[in-house]
């Protein structure tokens, strides 16, 4: 379990660095150009990794939802590239994480066909309140 916690934390750190790089590229070339470069380089990197590992996915067996995920992922990078230099690293990250927490609650409600428990809702409220603290100006 600790391995997955460290992996997720490391991923979060890399996302912060990636947002900074894409934000800088966005101010020079535009948000969609930054997103294109992000995905072209990502495709090349993952292709090399898959070739080295000798694992290649069967693209004929891809569910339709995977295409929506690709569109949302590209839009995520483009929007982040646009707002990151304009809002600043902390504000942009906090707002993105708040959106992810809220969408996770909705997704869980739909998948489980039930409202979250009061304890879980209290936890979400505390997380969102904690996320809002850095946005408060003195």
Brief write-up:
The chain contains five helices and no strands.
Protein architecture, described:
Helix content is 83%, strand content 0%. The protein has 138 residues and is mainly alpha-helical. It has helices at residues 2-29, 31-53, 64-87, 89-112, 118-132.
Helix count, DSSP H or I runs of 4 or more residues: 5
Spatial shape? globular
Binned, the helix content reads over 70%
Binned strand content = under 5%
Q: Tally of extended strands?
A: 0
Mean pLDDT: 87
Q: Note the main sheet.
A: none
- Sheet/helix structural class: mainly alpha
Low-confidence segments, given as residue ranges, are: none
Distance between the termini: 39 Å
Computed over alpha carbons, the radius of gyration is: 18 Å
Sketch the topology as an H/E string, one letter per element: HHHHH
Topology:
Layout: H1 2-29, H2 31-53, H3 64-87, H4 89-112, H5 118-132
Helix pairs in contact: 1-2, 1-3, 2-3, 3-4, 4-5
What would the keywords be for this entry?
mainly alpha, 138 residues, single chain
């Amino acid at each position: 379990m600790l391995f997955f916690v460290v992996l997720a934390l490391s991923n979060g750190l890399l996302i912060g660095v990636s947002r900074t790089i894409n934000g800088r590229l966005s101010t020079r070339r535009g948000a969609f150009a930054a997103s294109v470069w992000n995905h072209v380089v990502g495709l090349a990197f993952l292709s090399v990794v898959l070739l080295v590992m000798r694992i290649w996915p069967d693209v004929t067996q891809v569910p339709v939802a995977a295409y929506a995920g690709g569109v949302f992922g590209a839009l995520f990078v483009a929007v982040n590239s646009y707002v990151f230099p304009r809002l600043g690293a902390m504000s942009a990250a906090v707002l993105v994480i708040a959106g992810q927490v809220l969408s996770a609650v909705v997704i869980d409600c739909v998948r489980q066909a039930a409202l979250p428990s009061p304890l879980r809702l209290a936890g979400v409220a505390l997380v969102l309140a904690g996320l809002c603290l850095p946005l408060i100006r003195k």
